[in-house]
Amino acid sequence: MNFPFYIARRYLFSKKSTQVINIISGISVVGVAVATMALIVTLSVFNGFHDLVASFFTTFDPQLKITPVKGKTVAADDPVLTEIRQLPEVEIATECLEDQALAIYNGRQAMVTVKGVDDNFDQLTHIGEILLGEGHFELHAADLHYGILGLRLADQLGTGARFDGPLQIYAPRREGQLDMTDPTDGFMADELYSPGVIFYVRQSKYDKNYIVTSIGFASRLFEQQGMLSSLELRLKPGSNFNRVKKKMEQIAGDRFYVRDRFEQQDDTFRIMEVEKLIAYFFLTFILVVACFNIIGSLSMLIIDKRDDVTTLRNLGATDSQIIRIFLFEGRLIAIVGAIIGLALGLLLCWMQQQFGLVALGGTSGSFVVNAYPVSVHPTDILLVFVTVVVVSFLAVWYPVRYFSRRLLR
After folding, report:
1. Which residues lie below 8 Å from residue 309, measured CB to CB, with a gap of 6+?
2. Which H or E element spans position 353?
3. With 90 as the cut, is the pLDDT of residue 187 above it?
4. pTM of the entire structure?
């Protein structure tokens, strides 16, 4: 057995001649454990919110989205897009055209994003799971075009799930000069009718701004016949997603972006990652402060074991071995605290997942979920343990060597 480690282990669990050293050592373990527990719980809560938001987006966003690098639209029969949609791994391809417009209903108006899609959009995404109302997913019938509004947009315009009259949609003309005697001549105007449903993604980006309709309606409104702003794809089950995405990127070259669901919402997830990183750094700083308790405990232990040091030197222990005894002592305190903290943190996360101990708000149903979501990732457990070990080892290295050398003079 390693001689310095054996002595350090005995010192950690044995009763000291001065009781206060045992108390300070216990406080040191508790301090490291609490900081470790806080790191695990906080990072897991951020993971929970990340997964929750991701689940909302995936009901509306496609698996893969192809958009032009330059300009807002591209020809629907572009050879690159044709090659991509003909890949054997592609199960569903939907042409989309979206742009800004003005919606007016019974005197109420709102700036909206009109998203024109093919009839197979409900097969491409999970929009059928987020529809509210008595109707079903339908974009057109004969010469009528239907518009499916987001929940908050429907509330803002006062349409409800099924509106009686037509919803007026206006978009600026792309060509021609504005006749100042008739300003309305500068706009394309059209009407949408209700299919009896609205959608609820639980994200204001969609719920407050989007209207889903047929691509034929959008092409006519925006004067973009034969054009699309994106090609949205779903792969066949069992396809190697990363390999197919890489193949598409090679075909697209520098003309098109190929984005998965997370890349389509890159701004949202980047903000969440930054928030998680900032929380990690703040809690690591608290861990550094907690490590000062270890320094105090070791300083008093070194003084308390002055006679033992003399005995060990007489028995042949080298100065290096004696220094390593106290280094091992500090590291053991850190590791014990880390293990206890990890166990408590994982226990709290499990209890939050099972019982929802900490609620969001005081009233059930006020938020999308009633309790803080928690998701434990193995990489976070490893990161926290390594952080605690590295910070504590660095914190005790210099003080132990300094006090030990003064004691060994």
Report:
1. 302, 322, 407, 408
2. helix 319-355
3. no
4. 0.77
